[in-house]
Write a structure and sequence with these properties.
Layout: H1 6-32, H2 35-45, H3 49-52, H4 55-62, H5 66-85
Length: about 90
């Protein structure tokens, strides 16, 4: 079928390439990043998911506990509040 429809072949190659690239980046981040770095990367990459997904699912995706995620978010709120005061 891909031989018959060149656009389908191009589309599937791009899709596979993008998926491999995203998976490699996610694995690298999980293996070498701190929980704070993983959360920051998640916020940058998927900002719309924060409002739609429960925190327990985000924590599971990041490979951290819900308690750790809560601490990270609380610390971030504290930093943001302090930077607004200055």
């Amino acid at each position: 079928m891909a031989r018959d429809i060149p656009e389908l072949k191009t589309f599937s190659e791009r899709l596979i390439s993008r998926t491999i690239y995203n998976n490699r980046n996610r694995i690298l981040t999980i293996l070498s990043g701190t929980p704070e770095e993983r959360y920051a990367d998640f916020v940058d990459t998927h900002p719309d998911y924060l409002a739609r997904l429960p925190l327990r699912m985000i924590a599971a995706y990041l490979g951290i506990s819900l308690k750790t995620l809560t601490r990270i978010r609380h610390a971030q709120l504290q930093r943001d509040a302090q930077s607004m005061v200055k």
